[in-house]
Amino acid sequence: MKKPGFNQTAYRIIKLMQWMSCQPLSQEQINECFLADPMIQRSVSQDTIGLYMNTLRAVGCQVERPKPSNNYCYTLSYHPFSYCLDEETLQFLFQLVQYVDDTMGCRDMLHRQQFVWRVIEGSANTNRKALKQQFLDRLRIRNLDQLQTIVAELESHCHLPCVLEVAYQSPNKSRVVRDVLPEKLMCWNDTIYLKCYMLDYDGCVMLRVDRIDEVRVVDHAQAQQLLVELRQKQSQQEEVWVRFINCYASDLNMLDYLDVADVTVDPTDEAHCLVKFCTSNLFFLKQALLESGYRFQVIYPDGFRQEMRTFLVETQARYAG
Known about the structure:
Blueprint: H1 8-22, H2 27-36, H3 46-58, E1 62-64, E2 75-78, H4 87-98, H5 106-121, H6 128-139, H7 144-158, E3 163-169, E4 175-188, E5 191-198, E6 203-208, E7 212-219, H8 223-233, E8 238-245, E9 260-265, E10 273-279, H9 282-292, E11 295-300, H10 302-320
Antiparallel strand pairs: 1-2, 3-4, 3-7, 4-5, 5-6, 8-10, 8-11, 9-10
């Protein structure tokens, strides 16, 4: 029996409907999509596109022809393959996004977020706008497209030493501009961070990428030497002892991004553990502890414990006011 082959025409028509469900497309944009798709990688004529549109109309789609009022784009106003998302399905999708595999990179995380966004956008729910905002709130980001753009730009700069001027929204909602040396992008707790050296801080920090508004290269010439000097300053490590409360050692996913010398489980209560961090950057450790969401108590050193206490008191006062 002959095996069924891959129908290129059917595939192109299905992809065309998928793309037009997101936005109207001109003939040029349609061919750009065709060329970018690894299963197509070719452009087609205007007559062929017209035949594809007629096929969509034949199966019940409403496709508006290009004209001045729609910027000469084919517009899909309706298709009969709609679906509605109920609360159970929505919660499943949100949980799918929040589940992070240890090996997942930033690109994988963005693809997963974009997939769920398109599922919501393509649904027949009348409250799509509210659902999309709910999705963004769950991710703690403002704009998914902007996040993808910033991630792509930062990825290109992390491979070559350079000084970047980064504008971002600080936790107290003020706009801050800093010069940084980017090192790498990291995924942690469903959030993408830029690990970088902040020049005016003289140390390594983690910036949430979704809070970054603008990125601009300001220097290439001195970047390599600056990076060497900053890494040398970071070579001396300091011990910090932290006691985690109601948290099993196996649950401490933050340990993947910090140098951990020892983890001791309380013999009287396995849900309490004592962790000795060996770090060259107390700012990084403070940031990691606060972002972890775990209850903890800094045991040693006294200076770091007081710094944490002061920061928490000031943060509470700022948000209370």
